[in-house]
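Postdoc handover notes: sequence design on the structure in folder B. Input tokens:
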């Protein structure tokens, strides 16, 4: 009887060896032996084909799982930079005279204050904390202004990110007002305004 290795996916036990035992008192017919060997070869071929199919299925499943995992990871906590499609500058927190984050403006990407730490709140919204001092969060109220305040996690400090696949851009939506971060005056001021889809001042990368 052919032995099956522990790692093999092929079960050759039903096929046996390419040989039939002689019947008692007579020799096995040649035709029977040839037929048995043919079935053995066909069975082995089918087994190899099935093994390849299983490997291909496993590969496709693994790639899909990795893709889903990567998409999920993209929405986990992490540091981000938001670049305006309108000016090419990046959203930045600005320190006051005492060295505390207090205002928001546009700066050259890579400069101090242009990186935020996004904290996932589990409800589709994030807190956008400054990386220099994570006690301060991006905040907006109904006066349209955007600035930095001590983090409390209230609805005025919560943001969501909406993808516009047609334009290949993001919009940053304020949870309390349902307005969107808008790049005013070529980056000199930042505010929140109602949605204006064609307005590139509300587009971010």
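Designed sequence:
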């Amino acid at each position: 009887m052919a032995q099956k290795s522990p790692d093999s996916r092929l079960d050759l036990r039903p096929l046996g060896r390419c040989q039939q035992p002689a019947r008692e008192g007579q020799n096995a017919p040649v035709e029977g032996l040839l037929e048995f060997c043919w079935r053995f070869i066909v069975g082995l071929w089918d087994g190899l084909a099935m093994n390849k199919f299983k490997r291909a299925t496993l590969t496709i499943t693994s790639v899909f799982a990795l893709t889903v995992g990567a998409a999920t990871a993209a929405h986990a906590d992490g540091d981000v930079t938001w670049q305006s499609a309108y000016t090419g500058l990046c959203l930045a927190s600005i320190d006051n005279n005492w060295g505390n984050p207090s205002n928001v403006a546009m700066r050259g990407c890579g400069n101090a204050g242009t990186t935020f730490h996004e904290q996932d709140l589990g409800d589709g919204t994030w807190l956008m904390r400054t990386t220099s001092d994570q006690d301060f969060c991006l905040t907006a109220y109904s006066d349209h202004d955007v600035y930095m305040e001590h983090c409390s996690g209230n609805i005025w400090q919560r943001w969501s990110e909406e993808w516009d696949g047609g334009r290949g851009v993001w919009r940053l939506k304020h949870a309390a007002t349902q307005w969107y971060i808008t790049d005013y005056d070529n980056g000199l001021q930042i505010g929140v305004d109602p949605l204006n889809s064609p307005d590139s001042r509300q587009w971010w990368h």
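Context for whoever picks this up: Residues 22 and 200 are 86 Å apart (CA to CA). Don't rerun without checking with the PI first.
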